[in-house]
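This part of the workshop introduces the protein records we will be handling. Getting from the letters to the tokens is the skill we practise here. An example says more than a description, so a record of this kind follows:
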Amino acid sequence: MPGTQTYAQMITTSGALPTGSHSPRGYRYRGVPRQDAAASRTEELLGLLVQQRKMIALRNSRLRALSCELNELIAQAICDGVKVAAVALASGLPTASVRTTVLARDDLFPSGQSRTEQLRCIAALAAEVAEVESVRDAIERKRTEVLALARKSGLLDDYQLACASGLKHDEIRKMTRGISSRNPG
């Protein structure tokens, strides 16, 4: 019949219920939309690469400061009369590197410290340098695994990976060639 409306038609067209109260027009979805799995994995990989880039930069900065301090201690020890072979043994460096370090510093005066104290300081600082290098190398290996996983998944191209990791896109291809990717998480 043309003059009668059904209950559903009254709600959608007028928004008024037969009782006189008003309701919203149509159905409103109030749930949370499900996030795309590929987009969330992409964000996770990018975040991990940015975090690793920062950690590597911090380790490199610390390594430069420690290396500079070690070079100063080596040059001071040689200036004070400690043998090159003893300094090389304490620092773990080749004697040629020790000699080069000493030649770079010519403005030193004798410090008056004992030989054993200087060698102990050099050995402790060399151990700290080795520890920072090993941590940095572990982070770089982890970054290589993440890059290999990201390239294998195809979610990001080499340029996006280069932007997030701080490497050149050609370096990323060379680094990840032949690496089996495991889950970095």
User: Anything to note?
Assistant: The chain has a mean pLDDT of 83. The chain has seven helices and no strands.
